[in-house]
Amino acid sequence: EVQLVESGGGLVQAGGSLRLSCATSGFTFDDYRIGWFRRAAGKEREEVSCINRRDGNTYYADSMKGRVTVSSDNAKNTVYLQMNSLKPEDTAVYYCAANLLGPCGSRIWDYWGQGTQVTVSS
């Protein structure tokens, strides 16, 4: 079965960096997208970034554009989200998700991980 497992979250000081990982398994072909989302306490879920595993096309939300980079190590079946210049308002649970049909930015996602907590202290 398809499985997505996030890791790499933790506590970091403002201005610091973290690299999140999304380990994927169970896909039978490579034409799918991996998106990164976050949900802060009391707020709606927000799409942060996305990458097309096959061709490397990427998407970045304005809220974090310039501070994050999404990449894929296809040999390891892992997608990364490098986050720099972190701010306290970046504190959230970060999730990865996959869709099989649409491009990055699609509204419908087929699979979700359970999330990893990122806490940025001031």
Give a written overview of the molecule.
The protein has no helices and 11 strands. The protein has 122 residues and is mostly beta strands.
Number of helices: 0
SSE pattern: EEEEEEEEEEE
Unreliable stretches (pLDDT < 50, length at least 5) are none
Q: Multimeric state of these chains?
A: single chain
Q: Percent of residues in beta strands?
A: over 45%
> How many strands, which pairing sense, and closed or not: the largest β-sheet?
7 strands, mixed
SSE class: mainly beta
C-alpha Rg (nearest Å): 13 Å
| Shape assignment | globular
Number of strands: 11
- Specify the helix fraction band: under 10%
* End-to-end gap: 40 Å
Mean pLDDT: 95
Layout of strands and helices, then pairs:
Layout: E1 3-7, E2 10-13, E3 18-25, E4 33-39, E5 46-52, E6 58-60, E7 68-73, E8 78-83, E9 92-99, E10 111-112, E11 116-121
Parallel strand pairs: 2-11
Antiparallel strand pairs: 1-3, 3-8, 4-5, 4-9, 5-6, 7-8, 9-10, 9-11
Brief summary of the model shown:
The chain has 122 residues and is mainly beta. The chain is built from no helices and eleven strands.
